[in-house]
Amino acid sequence: MRLQVAAGGPAALKVVAAAQCAAAPVRLCWSAPAGEAAAGEGGATHGTGGGDPRHREAAPCPPLRPPDGPARPAEQPLSPLCSPWVPALQLDSGAVLFSPNAICQYFFLAGGQEPTDLTNQWLEWEATELQPVVAAALYAQLVHGKKGLEAAGALGKLLAYIEQSLSGRGTAYLAGDTKSVADVVVWGALFPVLQDEASLSNELQALRTWFQSMTLSEACRKAADSVLMPERLLEFKSYLQKQPPPCLAMERATSNEPEEEEASERALTEEEITAAADAWARGAAALPKPWHPQKPMLPVEGMRNVLITSALPYVNNVPHLGNIIGCVLSADTFARYCRLRNWNTLYVCGTDEYGTATETKAVEEGLTPREICDKYNAIHADIYRWFHISFDYFGRTTTPHQTAIAQDIFQRLLARGFLLQDTVEQLQCEGCQRFLADRFVEGICPFCSYEEARGDQCDKCGKLINAVELKKPQCKLCRGVPVVKPTQHLFLDLPKLEEQLEPWLERSWTTGDWTANARYITRSWIRDGLKPRCITRDLKWGTPVPLDGFRDKVFYVWFDAPIGYLSITANYTDQWERWWKNPQQVELYNFMAKDNVPFHSVIFPCSLLGADDNYTLVNHLIATEYLNYEDGKFSKSRGVGVFGDMAKDTGIPADIWRFYLLYLRPEGQDSAFSWSDLMLKNNSELLNNLGNFINRAGMFVCKFFGGIVPDMVLTADDKRLLARVTLELRQYHQLLEKVRIRDALRCILSISRHGNQYIQVNEPWKRIKGNVEDRQRAGTVTGVAVNMASLLAVMVQPYMPSVSVAIQGQLCIPPECFVLSPVFTCTLPPGHRVGAVSPLFQKLENDQIEALRKRFGGGQAKPTPPASDPVPAPASGSVVAPADPQLIQELTEQVAKQGNHVRQLKANKAEKAQVDSEVAKLLELKKQLALAEGKSPEILVPKGKRKK
């Protein structure tokens, strides 16, 4: 094995120490710093990994110190993409590992030490929690001259967590009595900042002992001596000074947002503690009254009226997990939050159904375009119902309202001189005997040479492309080489509309929340200068162009599709203009992936601005990056990745999928779905953290106090906890108001961690056996804890609605208390009776996950579903009336609640007659739900009764 590391690189410390600890037979290659490589003739700039990094002579391990003397002839870097500051391990098989933690774990695995669940949890914690904080501390320390914990800031909370873990178990090491890879990884992260145990406070005695033991061990000492030599630290400092600040600070800088201090980090003031205690004492009186909107929902004067759309999913295929998190799941989470805030909220979506892609899919499956749309609209709707997406209306674009509204906007643009006519060169496939839509031409991007650019846009550089500009174009349908033919088309005069667009953008950016990538992509369009954009196509399946000379053409899908937001709302209510022609009263949120940004930030706004009919324009454009699958991309054809219709067949509940997708939501950069990480997050964050706390809090009420919330006498420590929870709640609101959905989820998990620590420190299971004072203390701790669980039930509702319903049922939370408040208050007062409590989550086992990884790793592509629609096909030209989403949502929640009640009765060994009665109610509810969803109730089979 060959290990490439950079002397002076902090990430190198842990891998070298792990190699020593595991006695790994590895050959070390010391690379020079990036700046040195860049200085050489022909070298690349720092951080690119290009050029000659001038590797020093390789030596087996040990010795670890780079040999003295002149550099030998350079070895080739392990990867052209590998920065000299990133460790890389080349295995004997030729495979290369780049993750420092993966390299460390590989060394210990090769040495025969299998990882435990606790070891994996520590590795995940180090990667997600500790590393970002240490990076910021190290930057402040080496670049700005701050020392030790003065530079650490948020590090104090994490050190306290390690202290609690070590002292709570009484073990010498993080994962047990034996030094493990977790100890090496955490020590390697901390050592560059702490240097020695003298910077640790006396309160962290267990941590001090552990850190000293690790630092004095031979393996760690040799690693530190070799990696962090004084001259290499100077090189590393010089490198850091040329870099931008750590990612968190950079994200805040690009978003123009003030820095927000973590609620768990800063000291509490006496005023905050007193205010929290006062709010607690007010109880339910401190809560806002739930808002019950009218049906159909319309803007209400004096209220905050929120209109939410998610990019319309195209109807020719099944959405995968990346599609779901990028659009509908993110929008749904925010919509649920808005409703809990009593904001008057309308969330609409639907399938985008016109265009060549639909025609092509219809040919593939032997159906008409209308039949394809009916079929896949039903498939999409079923998937989103399973994921608990709470649309107020889920429609489609193939409706008379779509034609009327799109043609009206077109006529207004034409009358105001914002349309151009021109002859264009267009690609025609002689084999398919048709002009090719942009997305059905692939070739080499003329700007960045990306080889899989589409005919309308390059996914790599993001630039718009005219299909005829592609190098080596190919027909995506038959792989033939298309020819260029002239044809007449209409164009939207974007240069002329730019005069209106730019001031509107400035206003929207000033008053609204646009994600950093949305701003960047839009700026790049404006910077490059807008060009006329063709809005017509030589197709049959689309909205007809109402103009002589062009009546054999249809509108281009990207002109037509965003108008679908308006037409879908028009199918919901004939008063749709109160939402879409009312910018004075309505806030519009658009959710999408980053590839959809230009069409929503430039082309669609230009269409509405040019139409000049007081349209509601987007105030908040929320775009995600991409979600990848494991080490690659989702591919339906290759059977790689989880698609929406497959998720429910995994046996993993919808809420677990929701939680994990939202936990790794690609907000600032691309992220990747990982089966191992899904198991880890479920078992650690949900089962051991959130679920453990809520279950313990409710169980203590049932076990120690007969199911009645006991009296509470708050101490000073209790009041500080109330204030801490209030701060977390406040930050949760601040983050969600900025649509930072992933970060707000951390606040929920942080509150449950506070709760677990509160219970662990106060030990109510012991105090309940003591004297009167101890029993009173047990009652106070139990009462406060179960009220924290009640708060979490509301906070978690946007993320895991079924879990929220289950908690509400178990704790018997009053409906009037199920609303989000800005303060933490006592919603379950003394005397409140809770129900039976049962676990909320189940552990995911490694063999189960490995089977799923294999199943979705390729080759499992499902055959195309039969052409027959599960519901009767409508008459030609008619529109299928969608199911009532509100009824479906209500029945889904009732089924979950009744199912939980049945499980509780069985767990408590209730009388068979009572259980049978409640099961009958459950089956009746399921029957009603099946009918509401358009399914046959006869297919419902009780669990455990299926024949094998």
Structural write-up:
The radius of gyration is 30 Å and the shape is globular. It has 948 residues and is α/β, with parallel strands linked by helices. β9 (419-429) and β10 form a beta hairpin. Residues 33-84, 147-152, 247-261, 861-883 and 936-948 have low confidence and may be disordered. A 5-stranded mixed β-sheet has the order 3-2-1-4-5. Among the domains are: 2-243, Glutathione S-transferase Yfyf (Class Pi), Chain A, domain 2 (Up-down Bundle), CATH 1.20.1050; 270-278 and 671-681 and 702-817, Orthogonal Bundle (Isoleucyl-tRNA Synthetase, Domain 1); 405-470 and 485-557, Beta Complex (Methionyl-trna Synthetase, domain 2); 885-948, Orthogonal Bundle (Helix Hairpins).
Which SSEs are present, and which pair or pack?
Blueprint lengths: L1 E5 L3 H12 L5 E5 L2 H6 L19 E2 L27 E3 L5 E2 L2 H11 L6 H28 L10 H15 L11 H14 L10 H12 L1 H10 L2 H12 L5 H9 L14 H13 L22 E6 L10 H20 L3 E8 L4 H10 L3 H18 L6 E4 L3 H16 L3 E11 L4 E2 L5 E4 L8 E2 L16 E5 L7 E10 L1 H18 L4 H13 L4 E2 L1 E2 L16 E2 L1 H4 L3 H9 L4 H4 L5 E8 L3 H15 L8 E5 L2 E3 L14 H4 L6 H10 L7 E3 L1 H31 L10 H22 L3 H22 L1 H4 L4 H24 L5 H11 L34 H10 L29 H23 L4 H21 L16
Parallel strand pairs: 1-2, 6-7, 6-18, 7-8, 18-19, 20-21
Antiparallel strand pairs: 1-4, 2-3, 4-5, 9-10, 9-14, 11-12, 11-13, 14-15, 16-17
Helix pairs in contact: 1-3, 1-6, 1-8, 4-6, 5-7, 11-25, 13-14, 15-19, 15-21, 16-21, 17-21, 24-26, 24-28, 25-26, 26-28, 28-29, 29-31, 31-32
GO biological process, one term: methionyl-tRNA aminoacylation
Protein name: Methionine--tRNA ligase, cytoplasmic
EC number: 6.1.1.10
